[in-house]
Design brief:
By secondary structure, the protein is an alpha+beta fold. It has a 7-stranded mixed β-sheet with strand order 2-3-1-4-5-11-6, with helices on both faces. A 6-stranded antiparallel β-sheet has the order 18-17-23-14-15-22, with helices on one face. Strands 29, 34, 35, 36 and 37 form a 5-stranded antiparallel β-sheet that branches. Helix 6 packs across helix 7, helix 10 (422-438) crosses helix 11 (460-474) and helix 12 (543-555) crosses helix 13 (583-598). The protein is elongated and about 110 Å long. The N and C termini lie far apart (87 Å).
């Protein structure tokens, strides 16, 4: 396998809304480049869609890499999910890329996923190339419709969005493109090898082509004074000047070119590869990469820049992890700087551990091809690293730097997960931790309050996919159910209670007697015990037993079996027997005193209140707020975020268990939300009564007076 220098590498993230044809486009590109991988489809999938669950659902759920060799360059392509539940993967794919190819379905135009990935690219200043895909579809063959769609895109993203091609669509369908830089036409045979032949621009398209060519020249010239002077003096810009100026404008994020293709019928893909070669920035061209000093060189998290150059010390960023049943953990990385050699030792800067890069490879879907070295800017993979995970930076020891990983949103939905058998229980935790290595959105933990195992993810489909992978990969059967809400109980009034435990048996009897007061505390106060005994009515050694009895009874609850919190217990009197009193007897007395005091303490239920942040397009803001009100939510405020609205609210957790599905339906998949625990508050009486009626009552005390 040929090794490419950084100047000859183009790293592109293929992003866009679900079903815009990203995976099909990559397959067509590989076919055009005559890659052997293009014809090898497993179980009906594609080169970058090889997971069984992705094939079954016919959608991409995680990033996958492929490459095409074309006219002296290597185009590394990262296929990304477009479904809103997995779109955070696209953000991760942009870090190792120098260009984002934003794929738009020519039938539907810009959709919610398109908006989101565009915003991600804008946040990190990533150059964007817009590719209108599926132009062959009957719904996309109207010139008027295409012009209106382009104007809509420019209204949304600015006048920098400019066509560099026009599609040739006639009674034969979509079968060619007009290059607005060279003013040549390229004609294709649909369902062919993707390689066009140069021809004349159709006569009917000449006025449109000329107008679009002039508009492109004018926009390119705006960024440079010398070009503007040439444009005003000559009325145009020579092709050789235009090519260089357009390349520079794209690299500097001043122009977002628009191209037209059909991935399904393989039309225009060779011209897309040509465009990437000539106009997309190379791996070493975009400039230095922002890093943070680490290890001994760290100083208050100061940022620095690492030049993408073979002469620099080796630094690699792990942007994806895959757990293969046979090969083990496979780490996908970008070479930030230096030249990485096979079997080279490196240091994991974040974890302070040494690793060895055995079987250095390049990636074509799930197939790894070993190479001897990789240059700065290239993408590769290595198997069986010991400790390295997604987001880690590795490199030459003593030259520690850290690259910031892509932010991962908090999970939006949580389910309780139960293994079906003891064997499944033994396999569950190791299997889920392996899945968590490759899916950073996934969480798995035990709730200390309800003692349930919980699995959290982006939504219902995400968690269902996890369950399927547990069964297929690790032969672990589990069931999902709604998690228990960790309610609490508390008191709202002061009260007193008397507990006496007296029991006569053969030999020594049991005797313990105590009086306590219960007082409410502020939210979050927990539990406080006060010893207010005077005169030795209860011997000092038995007072801790009274406290333990109160705590044990409080943990079992009074109203509905939930722990009692935020109260103070004061023991102030009691009596004892010289022979029959014991720690056990006073612990039982403490339990009885607590339950007696609770009868008069106005017990109440508390529920967790979540701090919720919902982001949705402006047109859905009213529906979102109305829905929050129906969920007993309290809206705290609203902020504008581009074309969307961010709603801040406090909502009971019990009302948010299935919110992800509702929000998706309500906003047509364009909304997202985050939530975190904020505080506990009282449950309304009507709801409290239902909870208490349906809850398992705490077991009564089998005690005698």
């Amino acid at each position: 396998m040929k090794v490419y220098a950084g100047n000859d590498v183009r790293n592109v993230a293929i992003v866009g809304h679900a079903h815009s044809g990203k995976t099909e486009l990559i397959t067509a590109i590989l076919k055009t480049a005559k890659s052997p991988a293009a014809s090898s489809r497993e179980n009906g999938g594609a080169v970058t869609q090889y997971d069984e669950e992705e094939i079954a659902r016919k959608m991409t759920m995680s990033n996958a890499a492929a490459y095409a060799e074309w006219d002296g360059i290597k185009a590394n392509m990262i296929d990304t999910p477009g479904f809103h539940m997995f779109v955070h993967e696209a953000r991760g794919a942009m870090l190792p890329a120098e260009t984002a190819v934003v794929v738009i379905n020519a039938q539907t135009g810009v959709e919610s996923g398109t908006e989101r990935v565009w915003r991600y690219a804008s946040e990190i200043g990533l150059p964007r190339i817009v590719v209108m895909n599926q132009v062959d579809h009957p719904k996309a063959d109207s010139r008027t419709g295409r012009m209106e769609m382009l104007e809509g895109i420019r209204t949304r993203w600015g006048r920098q969005v400019v066509p560099v091609q026009l599609p040739i669509v006639d009674e034969k369908g979509f079968h060619g493109v007009v290059d607005l830089v060279t003013m040549d036409a390229y004609l294709y045979t649909p369902d062919g090898d993707g390689r066009g032949t140069k021809g004349a621009i159709p006569h009917a398209m000449e006025p449109d082509a000329k107008a679009a060519h002039e508009a492109l020249i004018e926009l390119v010239a705006e960024g440079k004074d010398e070009l503007m002077e040439e444009f005003f003096a000559v009325g145009t810009i020579p092709e050789e000047h235009l090519i260089g100026a357009l390349h520079e404008a794209i690299r500097e994020d001043r122009i977002f070119p628009v191209l037209y293709v059909s991935g399904l019928r393989n039309v225009g893909t060779d011209h897309l590869l040509d465009f990437l070669k000539v106009y997309a920035p190379s791996a070493v061209e975009r400039g230095a990469v922002a890093v943070h000093a680490a290890g001994k060189a760290a100083s208050n998290g100061d940022s620095a820049m690492r030049k993408v150059d073979d002469a620099q010390p080796v630094a690699m960023y792990v942007y994806k992890t895959m757990v293969d049943p046979f090969a083990g953990r496979i780490s996908f990385f970008k070479v930030i700087s230096g030249c990485v050699k096979n079997d080279a030792p490196v240091e994991n800067y974040a974890r302070g551990e040494s690793e060895r890069l055995s079987h250095l490879s390049i990636v074509q879907g799930r197939k790894l091809t070993e190479v001897t070295e990789l240059h700065a800017g290239d993408l590769g993979a290595v198997a069986k690293l010991r400790v390295s995970q997604t987001g880690d930076t590795l490199g030459t020891k003593g030259h520690d730097v850290l690259m910031d990983p892509a932010p991962i949103p908090e999970p939006a939905m949580t389910y309780a997960i139960e293994p079906k058998s003891r064997a499944d229980e033994d396999k569950l935790a190791p299997a889920l931790h392996k899945l968590m290595e490759e899916d950073l959105m996934l969480r798995f933990y035990r709730d200390p309050q309800t003692n349930e195992f919980l699995v959290a993810g982006a939504g219902q489909m995400h968690i269902e996919t996890v369950v399927t992978r547990l069964r297929r990969r690790f032969h672990t059967e589990v069931t999902l159910k709604a998690p228990k809400v960790p309610y609490r109980e508390t008191v709202r009034a002061k009260s007193q209670g008397h507990g006496r435990h007296k029991k006569q048996t053969g030999g020594h009897g049991q005797f313990g007697d105590c009086k306590i007061r219960i007082e409410p505390m502020e939210r979050g106060g927990g539990f406080e015990f006060v010893n207010d005994i005077f005169g030795g009515s209860i011997p000092r050694q038995f007072v801790p037993a009274v406290e333990k009895g109160i705590q044990e009874s409080a943990a079992r609850g009074y109203l509905a079996g939930y722990p009692v919190v935020d109260f103070r217990a004061v023991v102030y009197d009691g009596s004892y027997h010289d022979v029959d009193s014991s720690e056990m007897a006073f612990k039982m007395a403490g339990r009885l005193a607590f339950r007696a005091a609770m009868e008069q303490a106005k017990p109440a239920l508390l529920e967790p209140i979540m701090k919720v942040e919902i982001e949705a397009p402006d047109e859905f803001a009213g529906a979102v707020m109305g829905d929050l009100n129906s969920r007993r939510g309290r809206v705290q405020g609203m902020d504008s975020a581009g074309t969307g609205t961010v709603v801040h609210a406090q909502v009971p957790l019990s009302e948010m268990l299935s919110y992800g599905t509702t929000l998706t339906s309500m906003t047509q998949g364009r909304g997202s939300f985050r939530m975190e625990m904020d505080h506990y508050d009282f449950v309304p009486p009507a709801i409290s009564e239902k909870i208490a009626a349906g809850a398992k009552k705490p077991a009564g005390e089998e005690l005698e007076e």
